[in-house]
Amino acid sequence: ATSVKAGAIGLVIVMLIMIIAYRIPGLVASVALVLYTTLMLITLNAFDITLTLPGIAGIILGIGMAVDANVIIYARIREEIAAGLSVHAAIKSGFGKAFSAIFDGNITTLIAACVLMWLGSGSVKGFAYTLAMGIVISMFTALVISRLVINAVYAIGVRDPKFYGIAKERKVVDFVGKRKIFFAVSIILILCGPVGMLVHSNVIGDKAMNYSLEFSGGTSTNVTFNKEMDIKEIDSEVTPVVEAVTGDKNVQPTKVQGTNQVVIKTRSLDLKEREALNKALEENFDVDTSLITSENISATVSNEMRRDAIVAVIVAAIFMLLYIWFRFKDIRFASSAVLALLHDVLVVLAFYVISRTSVGNTFIACMLTIVGYSINATIIIFDRIRENMRTQDSKESLEELVNKSIGQTFTRTIYTSLTTFIMVFVLFVMGVTSLKEFTFTLMLGIVCGAYSSVCITGPLWYTMKKKFSKKNA
Questions:
Q1: Could you write out the DSSP letters of every residue in 393-432?
Q2: Could you say which DSSP state residue 169 is in?
Q3: Up-side HSE of residue 295: CA atoms within 13 Å toward CB?
Q4: Predicted confidence band of residue 423 (pLDDT cuts 50, 70, 90)
Q5: Burial (Cβ within 10 Å: 0-12, 13-18, ≥19) of residue 173
Q6: Is the pTM higher than 0.85?
Q7: CB 67 within 8 A of CB 416
């Protein structure tokens, strides 16, 4: 229930930002967003899909894509008004010009979702289903519903350009010129991962990464309390006691519905530690120790599932690469997009290693969300580079063209990243403990995705274009 409330608050904040930023089109986008969420919930209900954390990730990514599609369209409408078109012509042209970016971005992510459905297992499949549904529904609401609503608004007499906004001339920032700095920062961040793993496994003598119960197994302790406790009470009162005794920062308490029992999952405990935990529970909560039972639990994420997830992601990346190559007729677009994707995954992986955040089911969901999110942002910029190349001025250098393209899509990158970030941040603030870890790494992934799409992908493509000109390609 808390997560639902957090989602609703996040959605309202996103809608307000859209209205403030885009005026009438922002209001239209908000209508489309409400419709998107409603259709998503109806579909989940119709197919009787239980929402797991990966499922929630799929929905958040879907909302991000829905906002993104609207932002691309309305930013385009503003540009057309600034170029001197009437509002009516600008609306028509805005939808037309935004279509290829939205189509390519969504189809690439949909390809990834289909591969994950086909090759993934367990939580990966759950993520893929909700993501695929989200993409189809968000494309429908952005391209069909938004168009109908905005044309209806225009038809009833809202025709003044001031209601739609006019794109301001942006100062072109030299992203390509600063590429060496960006590349150096990225390489340092990426290297933190393998270095951290080596330090932990060889120097400290710990595991390379902090694998959670799903990956490494542990101990399950069933405790009968004197009263029924809700999740909030368990999180604030019981969990700290268990953490203090076991030294485990990834305690997973689960309430047994309709009883006073709570199942507490921790790392594997030996007999001495189990007795110490029983004693602490007796002292703090006056529980009857004869009613406490504990058993060893095996890892739920087997090596096979882990391998499935890795294979699915690699195959998805290959299919994405092929699609981008086919659509953009240039292998350099495809390879720089996939390299940027790899960059985001490796930077977030480095964060997991250094912060010792537990690696479990949420880790897989988080990585998959970043893959889907990152590729979409990259394609928007590449779409603009492709468009500008068709109308390139003979005096304009390739470097200027890339910088101009990044500048033209900059507002879209900021708004989409900001709105998705807010959705996740509200979940982080209001959600239960199990959500916090997941949402925190997702926020990091969103920031990383925004950075790589603005600072890495364009300059990387430019570098490849210069190094491997048509003669070598």
A1: -TT--HHHHHHHHHHHTHHHHHHHHHHHHHHHHHHHHHS-
A2: P
A3: 4
A4: confident
A5: middle
A6: no
A7: yes
Q: How far apart are CA 215 and CA 440, in angstroms?
A: 20
CA distances from 80 to 32, 109, 117, 162, 457 (A): 22, 28, 40, 13, 26
pLDDT in tens, 125-184: 888 888 899 999 999 999 999 999 999 999 998 888 888 888 777 788 899 999 999 999
User: Rounded to an integer, what distance in angstroms lies between the CA atom of residue 301 and that of residue 312?
Assistant: 15
282 class by beta-carbon count within 10 Å (0-12 exposed, 13-18 middle, 19+ buried): middle
* Gap between the Cα atoms of 356 and 83, Å rounded: 51
Q: Are 76 and 409 in contact (CB under 8 A)?
A: no
Contact yes or no for 349/193 (Cβ under 8 A): yes
Strands (E), 256-412: 261-266, 293-297
For the chain, the straight-line distance linking the first and the last C-alpha, in angstroms and rounded, comes to 54
d(CA 473, CA 465): 9
pLDDT in tens, 371-404: 887 888 889 999 999 999 998 887 889 999 999 9
Closest among 110, 81, 181 to 456, alpha carbons compared: 181
Output b/e per residue, 418-454; b: 16+ Cβ within 10 A: bbbbbbbbbbbebbebbbebbbbbbbbbbebbbbbbb
User: CA-based diameter of the chain, in Å?
Assistant: 84
Cα distances from 435 to residues 54, 346, 362, 366, in angstroms, run 11, 22, 9, 11
For residues 191 and 171, give the distance between their C-alpha atoms in angstroms, rounded to a whole number: 34
Give the whole-angstrom CA distance, residue 396 versus residue 119. Answer: 46
CA distance 466 to 114: 34
